[in-house]
Amino acid sequence: MEVATANMGDVWRLPEQQQQQQAPCLETTTTTGEGKARGLVASVKKTATQEEGEEEERGSKRLRTSPTSPSSPPRGRSPEGPPRGASPEGPPPRGASPEGPPPRGASPEGPPPPSVDKAAGHKVVVTGSTGGKSSSLEGGRSVPADLPWVNLLKIGQGTYGEVYKARPGPERREQGAIVALKRLLIRDDWGFPVTSVRERKILLALQHPNLHPNLVRLYEMYQPSPESEDVYMVFEFLELDLEIIIQSPAVRKLDVPRVKSFMQQLLEGTDYMHRRYAVMHRDLKPSNLLVSRTGDLKICDFGLARTYQSGRSYTIPVITLNYRPPELLLDCRKYGPPVDLWSCGCIFAELLERKIAIPGRTDVEYLENIWKLCGPPEPWPEAKRVCPKWQTVTDDLADKGLERSVRSRFAAADELAAPLVDKFLRLAPSSRISAERALDDDYFWSGVPALPAEDRALEWDVEMVRAARDDQQRSRRR
Ligand SMILES: Nc1ncnc2c1ncn2[C@@H]1O[C@H](COP(=O)(O)OP(=O)(O)O)[C@@H](O)[C@H]1O
Ligand SMILES: [Mg+2]
Question: Which protein residues have a CB closer than 5 Å to ligand 2 (ion)?
């Protein structure tokens, strides 16, 4: 481990070679900090849990080899080669199925593929500074005056922190023109919040030089001083998120190629998390999908993400209510990646209709709306073992004459999209389509193609889109 000392304090940087090997190893990245980062790393150590995956299941069967629309094949299905971020040897191992053994997620023996794209390489650093002076910030809490970023502008208020748009100062030129700073709220009696620890662990694991294009890039973790209550996560900046786009009156229409492009990118990122790193995101929703003015979509907010292993139990208050799958509402603790695919279905449906697909302000209300839309649950052989409530509730529903109306409802918005929505919104998790199979679905391979990567810049003015959404929200609050 190389520990460099700079004027601003001790800086921990991994040499590029080491980082390539270590970044995907959760344990290594969370237990090897030195210098000023020690306080932060120590608290990571305290909360870190062993989440190793099981045996990697290798396989490279391709579901389909050539697109029906050669002008715009889904990324990753290109006959020219693997997607950016994928292994140069071929597709990553299979194993996202809840029944089958998952791929080795964050195994120390399983480093990422060697870098084939030097330009995409970058360092994630944990930095500290000796600064401590505070200056106030309009509309926010005070921030230290001598941060290495300037012109902070608050752009988001999340559950666990504030997000600022900022300009890197001279010490951070390599981070480009603009970054997003996520300032984590640290409470004295809590120490570093567990969700932030997770977010950092998982993001570091996913940030190897061949970072997948549909996952947000983390440049740095910054703690102004070891005693500081603040920690900043420094991300690449993207102008919008999908919630803003869906809600903004400045976006008159989301046409089919655009919806396809968003869904394809969401599924590419999800597939990569699931199969290559055995990570469940557990909070996929439009506001956690960032969108750049060039039309790129990136998954962010890994605060609830974690690695999974077949047969293990997990906590259930995860996933924002209107994107939460029925098994979680019915107390299933042995869940797996299909939870994210339910959320993908809700996001897809929301893109089609520009409104929340399954409303509900309480668990009960939401669950009732699920039954109304999805009808009686399909048999789920594992239910008795992993989700006792499932059987009771679904037996009760059997004679209520419920009818599934997913296809007919969404066909009104897009006839060709409805069958795929139907495959995501399956009540039994084992019947739900995987991200890999969804990418191979006819929806992406027939009809109008998705916007190609080189031609998907947003057709709307991003500032207007954001301002129109904000105006609308303000007038609704009045
Ligand atoms: N890298 C980024 N670039 C631009 N905006 C961002 C970025 N990261 C987050 N945001 C904005 O801030 C909001 C909250 O960030 P998020 O990471 O989701 O925090 P939380 O865990 O508090 O929800 C997002 O919904 C998005 O609008
Ligand atoms: Mg969020």
Answer: 158, 288, 301
Residue 287 Cα to ligand 2 middle (Å)? 6
Q: Are residues 230 and 244 in the same domain?
A: no
Q: Which domain holds residue 324?
A: 240-470
290 lines ligand 1 (CB under 6 A): yes
* 159 Cβ closer than 6 Å to some ligand 1 atom: yes
CA of 275 to the centre of ligand 1 (A): 25
Does residue 174 sit in helix, strand or coil?
A: helix
Name the pairing type of β-strands 279-280 and 125-128.
Answer: unpaired
CA separation for the pair 442, 447 (Å, rounded): 9
What is this structure's pTM? 0.76
Give yes or no for residue 27 CB within 6 A of ligand 1.
no
Pairing of strands 179-184, 231-236: antiparallel
According to the 3-state scheme, what is the secondary structure of 93-119? CECCCCCCCCCCCCCCCCCCCCCCCHH
Print pLDDT tens along the chain (478 aa).
222 222 222 222 222 323 333 333 222 222 223 333 333 322 222 223 333 332 222 233 334 433 333 333 344 343 333 333 333 333 333 333 333 333 333 333 233 332 223 333 344 555 655 444 444 444 455 676 789 999 999 998 877 778 999 999 999 999 999 999 998 866 545 455 666 667 777 877 787 777 899 999 999 989 888 877 788 999 999 999 999 999 999 999 999 999 999 999 999 999 999 999 999 999 999 999 999 999 999 999 998 999 999 889 998 889 999 999 999 999 999 999 999 999 999 999 999 999 999 999 999 999 999 999 999 888 888 888 898 888 888 888 877 889 999 999 999 999 999 999 999 999 999 999 999 999 999 999 999 999 999 999 999 999 999 999 999 999 999 8
Q: Which of 21, 20, 15 is nearest to 2 (CA)?
A: 15
CATH number of the domain that 442 lies in?
1.10.510.10
Q: How many domains is the chain partitioned into structurally? A: 2
Taking the centre of ligand 2 as the mean of its atom positions, its distance from the CA of residue 288, in whole angstroms, is 5
Catalytic status, residue 283: yes
Is 182 one of the annotated binding-site residues? Answer: yes
Q: Is residue 15 part of a domain?
A: no
207 and 247: one domain?
no
Q: Are residues 104 and 226 in the same domain?
A: yes
